[in-house]
Amino acid sequence: MLRDISQSGLAEEGLASWLGDPGRLSVQRAIGELRAGRPVRLQAGGGKSQIVAAAETMGGERLAEWQEKFNAKPALVLPAPRLRHLGFVATNASHLSLAGLSAADIDAMLFAVSPTLPTIPQRAADVHESIALELVKLAYMLPAAVILPDTSSHDSSLVVVDAKSVENFHDHSAKELSIAARAFVPLAEADQAEFIVFRGGDGLRDQIAVIVGQPDPSRPVLTRLHSACLTGDLFASLKCDCGDQLRIAISEIAETGGGVLLYLDQEGRGIGFVNKMRAYGLQQLGHDTLEADAVLGYGPDERRYAVASAMLSLLKFPQVILMTNNPEKLKALESFGISVTGHRRLLGSVNPHNLSYLTTKAKNAGHMLGEIIRQKLRPL
Q1: DSSP strand E in the chain: where?
Q2: Residues with catalytic annotation?
Q3: Fewer CB in 10 Å around end: N or C, the chain?
C-alpha cells in the first residue's frame, strides 16, 4: 500500500528533489501528452507561451473545433525537408497559416506524397515555433506541429513545458543516466557477454551495453554503437545490413579478446519505428532511403550520441576504436569527449533488396562502403 506522502516526513523541497529536474520532468510529461493526442502549453521567457499539438493527431474536425473554441486560427510548423518536397523555398522550419484551408488541404500538407496545394502564406518559424517542432519530434510523431497563440481562455489543466528545457533535453538526459541492472548472458557469437541496462535517457527509454570478454579500460576498447533495428536485428530483414552488422560486431569483438557494443534505442536513424515504416512505404513508391525520410520531414540522420558517450563514461571506457562505416559517428563521439583512436569498418552481405539502400548511404551520406556495393550480389 502506498504511503501518504504528506505524512511521510518529506518536505516540499525534498519531494521536488525526489521528482528530479523539473524542466526535464515537464518535457517527459509533454511527450506523453502529445503521444496521447493532447495539446500542451509551451512556455517561453517573458511570459510568452503557445499551445502545441502533434499535427498527425489533429484531423480537420479537431482543427475546426480549435478555431471555434479559441476564436483563433491555428498554424502549422513544418521542417525544411518536408517544405521543399511540397514545393516551398525553405532552408529552415516555416510557419504556415491554415486559415481558409480545408481538412483535405491540411491532410495533404501532412501526408500526401505529390499534393496539389493552394497558395499558402509562409514565413520563417521563430525560435519558439522551432522548439515546438522539436518537442513533437521528441515524441517520435510525424515532424509537424500545430500551434495556437495562448490566451487566458485555454484549459489551465494543460501540461506546461519550458522551451529551454526542450532545447536542453538530450544533454540533460545523458547527464542523468544511471545503471539499472546487469547480468551475464551468453551469446551465440560470444559466450562471455554481460548485458548492462541504463535508465534515464531520452524519453526514459532503456539503453543497453553489451560488454564482451574482458576489455582493458586503460587502453582503447573496440566499440560498436548500434542503433536498434527491429526489422533487421530480430526479423533478419533483407532491406538493410543491420542484423549482419550486429552479429559481425559481436563476433569480431569476441575474437579480439573484448570490447563493448552499445545497443541504442534510435530506430530508423532516429525517427522511430512508426515513421520508419512510413519511410519504407515511400521507398516502395521509388524514393531512396534518404529521400523517403525527407518526404516525411526528416534530415538524413536524426540520431544523437550524448547518451552513448555518457554510457561509455559510466563504463570507464574513455578511449575507443569504433566499428562503423559512418564517419559522422567518429565526429559525434569525439565532440562529447570520447577519444576515438581508430576505426574498423563493418561490411555485411549485399542482396537485391538492400543494394539501393547501401548505394545511397555510400554516395549520398558518405558511408565507407565503396567496394561492397561493387561486389557481386550474393545468392539469397
Answers
A1: 40-43, 49-54, 75-78, 94-97, 122-124, 145-149, 160-162, 178-184, 193-199, 207-213, 221-227, 258-264, 319-323, 339-344
A2: 301, 303
A3: N
Which helix (H) or strand (E) segment holds residue 254: the answer is: helix 242-255
Return the CA Rg of the chain. 23
Position of cell 530480430? 234
Q: In this predicted model, what pLDDT tens digit does every residue of 314-353 receive, in sequence order? A: 999 999 999 998 888 899 999 999 999 999 988 888 888 8
Give me the DSSP letters along 71-139.
SS--EEEE-HHHHHHHT---SS-EEEE-TT--HHHHHHHHH-SS-------EEE--HHHHHHHHHHHHT
- Domain span at residue 225 reads 177-266+303-364
- pLDDT tens readout for residues 103-141: 888 888 888 898 888 888 899 999 999 999 999 999 999
Q: How far apart are the first and last CA of the chain?
A: 57
Are 129 and 226 found together in one domain?
A: no
Q: Please check whether residues 163 and 18 belong to one and the same domain.
A: yes
| Residue 25's CATH number | 3.90.870.10
- Distance from C-alpha of 378 to C-alpha of 357, rounded to nearest angstrom: 16
**Residue 146 contacts residue 74 (beta carbons within 8 Å):** yes
Contact 315, 209 (CB under 8 A): yes
- Backbone φ and ψ for 369, nearest 5 degrees, come out as -130, 20
> Rounded to two decimals, what is the model's pTM?
0.87
Residues 62 and 182 in one domain: no
Q: Looking at the structure, do residues 69 and 106 belong to the same domain, yes or no?
A: yes
